[in-house]
Amino acid sequence: MPNIKIFSGSSHPDLSQKIADRLGLELGKVVTKKFSNQETCVEIGESVRGEDVYIVQSGCGEINDNLMELLIMINACKIASASRVSAVIPCFPYARQDKKDKVGSRAPISAKLVANMLSVSGADHIITMDLHASQIQIYVNNGFFDIPVDNLYAEPAVLKWIKENIPEWKNCTIVSPDAGGAKRVTSIADRLNVDFALIHKERKKANEVDRMVLVGDVTDRVYALLLDSDDITSQVEHCTAFSPNRLISAGATKVYAILTHGIFSGPAITRINNACFEAVVVTNTIPQEEKIKHCPKIQVIDISMILAEAIRRTHNGESVSYLFSHVPL
Fold first, then answer.
1. How far apart are CA 306 and CA 323, in angstroms?
2. Residues 108, 109, 113, 116: what is their CA dihedral angle, to the nearest 10 degrees?
3. What is the layout of strands, in order, in the sheet containing 149-152?
4. In sequence order, what are the residues at sequence separation of 6 or more whose Cβ sits closer than 8 angstroms to the Cβ of residue 81?
5. Residues 12, 66: Cα–Cα separation, whole Å
6. Phi-psi region of 36 (alpha: psi -120 to 50; beta: other; left: phi over 0)
7. CA dist., res. 284 & res. 266, Å (int)
């Protein structure tokens, strides 16, 4: 493809390389370093004048440093006369901070702040995957972002993984761990033509589950637990402490957990190792190699082909809606 450049940030070079290989391109030359006072320095090592530039940087690891690195890379390309600069952010940073937690709260809406920073830095377009909550998705075209956003979905890749790796998938029940994930779970259950169930959590206070009630029947069924798009420690604690055992005691035969962004912060890995999951399936929107070394239950779905195809279609002016329901060959 002519007039296109792909650069990788330092957060997930392996995914960037897979995207470039899929497109038959080489990653652009870029040097990132820190001065002694910890300021980030970026040097773009080749001309981007008149080019369609894509910068791949995920919201993981040292999130604040990686976000700042992305902003500087975008600005460096923009002032070097790039025709268009697109930020490819598989896991959007600060996506969970997308609303005030209660009326009258003085908490910021940090996801909106990040969106503004990307726009001000010079980004013309954003490609991301499975934004955390409907607030961001609703406002993609209604003021949350001031630039075009393509929010891709891991669902097609998840469906493919289920069909290829769970022999008894036709006898499974897709279960949402809470009411918030019901819409996503019913969509997957409908496309697989299987049953779905819901776990209702009763809380006495935030992040502390007091009691769980299973709504639906999982007797003698393979159970696929669909977690949030980006489960973190508190959610993993709930699911490992309650959900698998709750469903096994209700008659389920196997328990799979499937989520998009496997952040697994804090003691999450230990909790997963101690839980009765058959497998915990995540995508490679963030690096998983180190976590796999400490937790053999983790399995990874490669979504580089989805991001690569989104880049190709964007560069050629084609629609990306095909990717909402299909995995490119």
1. 7
2. -140
3. 4-8, 52-56, 84-89, 125-129, 149-152
4. 48, 49, 50
5. 10
6. alpha
7. 19
Q: Is 150 exposed, middle or buried (0-12, 13-18, 19+ CB in 10 A)?
A: buried
Backbone angles phi, psi at 34, to 5 degrees: -120, 140
Of the candidates 312, 173, 324, the residue with the CA atom closest to the CA atom of residue 256? 173
Summarised one tens digit per residue, pLDDT across range 52-77 is 999 999 999 899 999 999 999 999 99
Share of the chain above pLDDT 90, in %: 54
What are the tokens at 238?
Answer: 């709930």
Q: Are 224 and 166 in contact (CB under 8 A)?
A: yes
The token pair at 80 is 């070097």
Contact between 241 and 208 (Cβ < 8 Å): no
Is residue 48 within 8 A of residue 54, CB to CB? The reply is no
How far apart are the C-alpha atoms of 6 and 315, rounded to whole Å? 11
Q: Is there a contact between 319 and 102 (Cβ–Cβ < 8 Å)?
A: no
Range 14-27 average pLDDT: 97
Buried b (16+ CB within 10 A) or exposed e, 317-327: eeebeebeeeb
* Helix (H/G/I), strand (E/B), else coil: 90: coil
Strand-pairing partners, residue 152, are: 129
Contact 59, 91 (CB under 8 A): yes
DSSP string of 118-170? HHHHT--EEEEES-SSHHHHHHTTTTS-SS-EEEE-SHHHHHHHHHHH-TTGG
pLDDT tens digit sequence for 132-153 = 654 444 444 445 788 899 999 9
> Nearest 5°: CA angle at 50, between 49 and 51?
90
Closest residue by Cα to residue 257 from 220, 292, 235, 282: 282
Residue whose entry in the numeric block shows the structure tokens 């669902």: 155
- pLDDT computed for residue 64 by the predictor: 95
User: Residue 251 CB: number of other CB atoms within 10 A?
Assistant: 12
Q: Is 176 helix (H, G, I), strand (E, B) or coil?
A: strand
